[in-house]
Amino acid sequence: MSFADLLNKIRTYSISVFVIQAGGCRGCVDALSMALSEQKTIKGITFTGNPKHADCLLISGCINEKSKEEILKIYEKIPFPKAVVAAGACACSGSLFRREGNPLHTVEDVLPVSSWVRGCTPDGTEMLETIVRAMENVKESRQKGERIRQKKKKGFKSKETTNSKGGRSL
Amino acid sequence: MSKYLTEQKDGELIGKWFAYKHMGYSLLLIKANKKQDYVRINYFFEKDENIDLIDIEVPENCTLPSITIAYPEGAQMQKEIADCYPIKFNVQEQDQFEENEDYAAVEWGPFHPLLPEPVLFRFTTNDEIINQIHVEAGYNYRGVEKLCIGKRVPEVSDMLERISSISGFSVGLTFLHAIEEISNVAVPDRAQFIRLIFNELSFLRANIHSLSQLSKCLGLLSDYSDMFRIIKLYNEALNYVAKQPQLKDILVIGGVKENISIEPMFQLNVVIQEMVQELSDIKDTWKNTRSIVNRLGNIGKVDMSKASSMTGRIARAAGVDEDIRKLSKLPYSKLCYEISRKEESNCLSRAMLIFEDCLLSLSLIEQAIDKLPSGDVKAVVNTNGSGRVLVREKEAYGELVMYVALDDGIVTELKIRNSSSLKFPFLNEYLKGIQINDMPIIFSSFELDLSGMEK
User: Fold this and answer.
1) Which of A97, A146, B8, B322 has the fewest Cβ atoms within 10 Å of its own Cβ atom?
2) Do B165 and A70 touch (CB under 8 A)?
3) ipTM above 0.95, yes or no
4) pLDDT for B73-120, tens place per residue?
């Protein structure tokens, strides 16, 4: 088992979420923390204050020019596999605050988003479910990617081994 | 190029401030607006519900004397003006930190991961005692205030409700009161009572939030989880009457969006009884636990002279008789209530006042449900009015002041002053000389709502 596989296996059991409240009313984060304390079926989701320990980045609120750069910095610090969840109307579309003369960004403009939770205020349980599904999707797609890579690698090796006379063929 | 007012004009302005101070006026609001190449600054003063105004016009890049020499509570409002307009104030700069090997320098915050907001603490400690401190706050509401200019009333109302999860409902309600005053709208009685119920529910949510913060700072994890149980009950209650766990999209000009039938009100009443029981139990436990009484009773003492310049529980805990509900346009006068206050002016008295305020809110909701009149919940309104008005309302942590100017149904000027603006300038003083582990408790007992960040 490679180190990456081991790391993925460890991560299967709990999800650490780094929450960015990028200028909002804090309603989405309140709803999420309430759902976290009430929820009985979804377990093992924790908040972290360190992006290097995070698996998932949850962004709520409006993103302006100033916060865009900082969000990118934080995103780069989160290790792979990582999921990005846009929570709430402000993060998904800019909501009421995205107007003429107020150039706000949606999360989609800034980062590759795995899942969206729409609504003002979105349901807390829905947000938790979305985090779990987003992580599953990210891991699945990563595993698929690894399988394809391994197949390619094997194909490359087999070509290499069959060419016994003339040394390296490629 | 920087310009100064002439010495004579400086002296006149300072003289006026001190005259108001000696007459017993308190500072209500400072607002500014820019016109061509000059800035117009308005200082609003209040005494016994009489509001007086100093109106000055100064050229751009001018340096004005600071109001903090007469009214130290105006520091944050003045800083916001200096940040937003081309004008400076003659403020005494804070001392630089002395570099010393004996002291450990600590930076705490900003709590927002992206911006230098809402608050940043820089302090030095020696043996866990804070000996130098410097607290900086970001802008409060600046982004939203500017966004609202030039917009029609319903759009502005929707935006203001989302200004903060703590006091968003109160801000939205205050704005509607201002518009209704300008347009001479008579809100139906039933709508006023429903608004009152929702307003008290918003105070309740904020107060429980404060208690959960305080119990977390004290390390009382079982009480912290109890608070979450109470918040769950609150959400259940809100789901009955608002059909959602947040206080949004409820208000419209001239009333409320939807009528509430009697059945959800009864369900709300049942949950209220349960919450009263839970809160009373926790209050009794705190009151009778010696370790909590000693811990909270010995810290965060605020002088009466300073407390009278502030608003909310921090003032009432020092014996100031403050009842902002009587200034409200909501029908509080038809209900029976008594505002509690304390004399000790420490963290314990403030914590006990939070419990009492929660119980008061629950009692007011219960009374409002009993006295709920029948009738319409929406008046026919014409929002194309023009005028300007200053409205004072209660928010969860103190007094909320809003200045609104309307021109043919379009908002031309908006300034919001919440309770945090008055309390924040005193924070530095009361955090100096304390133990570092008392800092979160004292900070949470100041109850600052600095969440209306740049959007």
Assistant:
1) B8
2) no
3) no
4) 888 888 888 888 888 888 876 656 666 667 777 776 665 555 555 677
pLDDT of B139: 66
Distance from CA of A37 to the nearest CA of B (A): 8
In one-letter notation, the amino acid at residue B168 is G
Query: B interface toward A at CB cutoff 8 Å?
Result: 112-115, 143-144, 147, 155, 158-159, 162-166, 168, 225, 228, 231-232, 235, 244-246, 248, 451-455
Query: Is the model's pLDDT at A10 over the cut of 60?
Result: no
Neighboring chain B residues of A90 at a CB cutoff of 8 Å = 455
CA distance A135 to chain B (A): 23
* Bond from prior residue into A81 cis (ω within 30 degrees of 0): yes
Beta strands B410-417 and B398-407, pairing class: antiparallel
pLDDT computed for residue B228 by the predictor: 83
| pTM, 2 dp | 0.85
Interchain proximity A70–B114, CB inside 8 Å: yes
Of residues B378, B336, B330, B351, the one with CA closest to residue B200: B330
| Block residue for tokens 């609104």 | B404
CA atoms of B92 and B85, how far apart (whole Å): 19
Q: How confident is the model at residue B25 (pLDDT cuts 50, 70, 90)?
A: very high
Q: Would you list the DSSP string of B239-296?
A: HHHHSSSS--S-EETTEESS---HHHHHHHHHHHHHHHHHHHHHHHHHHH-HHHHHHH
- Only one residue has tokens 């949470």, namely B444
Identify the DSSP state of B89.
E
What is the Cα–Cα distance from B449 to B396, expressed in whole angstroms?
10
Residue B7 above 80 pLDDT?
no
Give the CB-side neighbour count of residue B343, counting CA atoms within 13 A. Answer: 0
Interface-testing mutation among A96, A104, A110, A126, with chain B (most B C-beta atoms within 10 A): A96
pLDDT tens digit sequence for B206-236: 899 889 888 888 888 888 888 888 888 888 8
Q: Give A10 to chain B, closest Cα distance, Å.
A: 27
Q: How far is the C-alpha of B92 from the C-alpha of B77, rounded, in Å?
A: 16
If we measure between CA atoms, which residue out of B442, B433, B422, B424 comes closest to residue B123?
B433
Q: Which two structure tokens, joined as six digits, stand for B366?
A: 């219960």
Q: Burial letters for B183-206: b for 16+ Cβ neighbours within 10 Å, e otherwise? A: bebebbbbbbbbbbbbbbbbbbbb
